[in-house]
Amino acid sequence: MKDIFDECHFGDLKLKSRIVRTGTWETETEEGGFLSPAIFDRYEKIASSGTGLIVSEIFALDRKDRFAPYSTSLNYRGFIKDYQMITDICHNHNVPVLGQLAFFYYDDGDNQKAEANDLTLEGIRKLQAEVIMAAKKFSFAGFDGIQINMGNNFYLTRFINPYFNQRDDQYGGSTENRVRIASEIIKVIKKTMPGFHVSIRINPWDVRKGGITADESIAIAKELEKAGADSIQLTARTISYLYDGNEKNPFLVYVDKLIDEIDIPVVLGGNSRDMGSMNDVLNHTKVDFMSMSKPFVAQADFLAEWKENGEGVSICQSCNNCYSKKTSTCFKY
Question: Which residues pair with 290 in a beta bridge?
Fold first, then answer.
């Protein structure tokens, strides 16, 4: 029987549980982008409570990005010093930590909101170089790897989506071509930064006609694995993923099929809120890792209580205020 608090391996990373904490927004920074004491305290509570792997709050590439006011910055003067302290906190509790990169707009130098079809080859190289440099900055700050968010509706999600990408060169058309922009990034990171974990966050399918289907999403994951990605994390906005004891919902059917198709760890995202349901998923599907986000906003150290009691339900009410209002704090607690 699998349990959320099993010690396990996640590629080359050793985890003390199957739980991945995924960050979203960061709104507790001080003037100039420096981290406040509340942020250090939050990471201490998350890392000490039984979390297996931490994925940071979102980092934006550009201060002009749509979500930059609610994200952390790679470019303020104290970045390396602050985040070396954050990664030290995680490592002191034997918890690996990945820096999450997610951006909505891309400035190619001519257009602050250049989309997939607008980018020249020079613009693509500029974007790739900036993502690779972000990975190097994460490494300098002590992160164990990078998570490139190609899920939800972020920039690279749109780039690999045939609904948005109608390019007729080597970066458009087939699945392999549309994913090439990410594949080339991954290859460079893996070649120049040995041992640095590269995780990619993807959607299982798209709600747009002519967008990404479940089969296409699996093909995308296979291309990412072939390029050298170390793990895949699934994300979506509108589906509940918990096992109901009767008929599996489509997301769980998808994740089992994906796990059969690739040989790297897959993290199941979703509205996980109680230990019993999560253990049901672990023992009725092929899932080995599950991520949580909003429960950590409501109570950063709740996993300690779950582990001590052998059961537990998050106090998170799924009101979604923390996400929709783009804040790293809970409105209810």
Answer: 19, 268
Could you tell me the pLDDT band of residue 206, with boundaries at 50, 70 and 90? confident
Q: Report pTM.
A: 0.95
Burial 286-296, CB ≥16 within 10 A → b, else e: ebbbbbbbbbb
Question: pLDDT band for position 131 (50/70/90)?
Answer: very high
CB 306 within 8 A of CB 312: yes
Predicted confidence (pLDDT) per residue in 3-52, tens digit: 999 999 999 999 999 999 999 998 998 998 899 999 999 999 999 999 99
Closest C-alpha to 86, from 174, 177, 9, 21: 21
Q: Does residue 239 carry a pLDDT above 80?
A: no
In the chain, the largest separation of any two C-alpha atoms, in whole Å, equals: 57
